[in-house]
Specification:
By secondary structure, the chain is an alpha+beta fold. It is 26% helix and 22% strand. Among the domains are: 191 residues, 3-Layer(aba) Sandwich (Beta-lactamase), CATH 3.40.710; 126 residues.
């Protein structure tokens, strides 16, 4: 059993106190208040002004050195790879997809599909009226590009924007097939190494290719550094890293998005090349609040990871509080110290013993206790029939999850998050799930026995926004996600 102990991560950006960076500490605190008041759960935050990090924080057990799933913020990195590929002459914006990827083209390709260019897939202006990814999987599970090219658009090509994950997959495939390497390896010498970023895992399609539209794992500082690079028009430490002119081309509106719901006003400002335009600046964003927000006119970058359905709430709080904080001096000289103390003490809410009640025993029962997920249990992390055995172990407990003939064991404790690296489900030979392929998954767990004899713990996927609360009582186990992972609701779907 090993508890988490975050180490100092490599710093990619300089640090400055808010006052020295030219931004109000109180304003940053007001941003945090506004997010909290809306019930938004942040996992990390970086505020960069004038090229320096003025505020940073992680809600434990999330930590500076640990990569976090970006979801669709990954798209902006795929776009950047396309920018390099275009500059290097691998393809152009006006090239037709069918000409660049002939091996994927169906014999009876529709003329409208045949007219699609790199510009159309980068801007998601293919004329389709809905995301085509699910249908592409159904039509051609082994060739998603071909599955996409089998779907004629309902409207005129270039006439409308619809958020379409297949488009990004096509862009990723273009770079990987014409560039001759995995997307991560293509970006490594061009983007990641110049910025000092060590990239994490990028989920693949089961055939060794990064999916492009999601799946990239990066640290919060890597997100912030990417934002600062975009803010500086692709320059880093005096060197032109991104192709000259690419930032301006990728981060301007190429297609209207004002048909989106009015309540999501920042999604109605237009779409670039895998970047969203906003009321202020532009951004890459991913499901549940993975943000890289760039506001050039305010010299501001905001990087967040989180789990929330209220993504607009994060942006509203930024516009209401961070923008007015730029260039504003704090009247109270202690504001900076208060903000620093607050950022240093951030933590997720966790389960615990009944207030004021003594536990039945310091570590719970001295013998293993088994719970079973009952038949009829609805969708969730654990399918019906899953056996969960909780046994005392050292300073905490070990939970064994048995499903489909395989067993996964994780460690936990009542007062600290405990880390387990799961490398395989014992006795269970599973193929990788769709869109995932990795050697290990890190799981964090915290919780324990309550005074009434109930076992209750949070189980967190360390590089994702997601955790589920496990409860065992009367021989029955139940579990529920804080937010359902997009790659699958079953816990075992996220294990190697």
């Amino acid at each position: 059993m090993s508890t988490t102990s975050p180490a100092q991560t490599t710093r990619l950006l300089p640090r400055a106190a808010p006052a020295d960076a030219g931004i109000s500490a109180a304003g940053i605190g007001d941003f945090l208040d506004a997010v909290e008041d809306r019930g938004i759960e942040l996992h990390s935050l970086m505020v960069v002004h004038g090229g320096a990090v003025a505020a940073e924080g992680w809600w434990a057990p999330y930590a500076p050195e640990r990569p976090h799933l970006l979801y669709s913020l990954s798209k902006s990195f795929t776009s950047t790879a396309a920018g390099f590929a275009i500059a290097e002459g691998l393809f152009s914006l006006d090239d037709r997809v069918v000409d660049l990827l002939p091996a994927h083209v169906p014999d009876d390709v529709d003329p409208a599909v045949a007219s699609l260019t790199v510009h159309h897939v980068l801007s998601m202006s293919t004329g389709h009226t809905a995301d085509t990814l699910g249908t592409a999987y159904d039509l051609e599970p082994g060739d998603l590009v071909r599955g996409f090219l089998r779907q004629p658009p309902q409207d005129q090509v270039g006439s409308r924007h619809v958020y379409n994950n297949s488009c990004t997959y096509v862009v990723a495939t273009l770079v990987q097939e014409l560039g001759g390497t995995h997307l991560t390896d293509y970006l490594r010498p061009r983007l990641f190494e110049p910025l000092g970023i060590t990239p994490g895992h990028w989920d693949d399609d089961g055939h060794g290719r990064a999916i492009g539209f999601s799946g990239l794992h990066l640290t919060t500082e890597a997100i912030a550094a990417f934002g600062q690079l975009l803010l500086a028009d692709g320059r880093w430490n005096g060197e032109q890293v991104l192709p000259e002119g690419w930032v301006a081309r990728a981060t301007r509106s190429h297609v209207r998005t004002d048909s989106d719901p009015a309540t999501n006003v920042d999604w109605a400002q237009g779409y670039g090349y895998q970047f969203w335009m906003g009321r202020h600046g532009f951004r890459g964003d991913g499901a549940y609040g993975q943000f890289c927000v760039v506001v050039p006119e305010s010299d501001l970058v905001l990087a967040t990871t989180s789990v929330t359905d209220d993504m607009q709430g994060i942006l509203d709080a930024a516009w209401d509080h961070l923008l007015p904080a730029v260039g504003t001096a704090d009247a109270d000289p202690a504001a900076g110290d208060r903000l620093a103390e607050r950022l240093a003490s951030l933590a997720l809410p966790v389960v615990g013993a009944d207030p004021g009640a003594a536990p039945t025993a310091p570590m719970g029962p001295v013998s293993p206790v088994t719970f079973v997920v009952p038949d009829g249990e609805g969708p969730g992390p654990l399918p019906a029939g899953t056996r969960v055995q909780v046994a005392p172990a050292d300073d905490g407990w070990q939970a064994s999850f048995t499903f489909d003939g395989g067993t996964v064991r994780i460690d936990g404790a009542p007062s600290v998050w405990v880390e387990t690296e799961v490398t395989a489900a014992v006795g269970h030979d599973r193929n990788p799930t769709r869109g995932r392929s990795r050697e290990a998954t890190t799981v964090l767990a915290r919780g324990g026995w309550r005074a009434d004899g109930t076992f209750e713990a949070d189980v967190l996927l360390a590089e994702m926004p997601h955790r589920f609360r496990l409860r065992g009582a009367g021989g029955v186990a139940t579990a529920a996600w804080n937010a359902v992972p997009l790659a699958g609701e079953r816990f075992e779907a996220h294990l190697p």
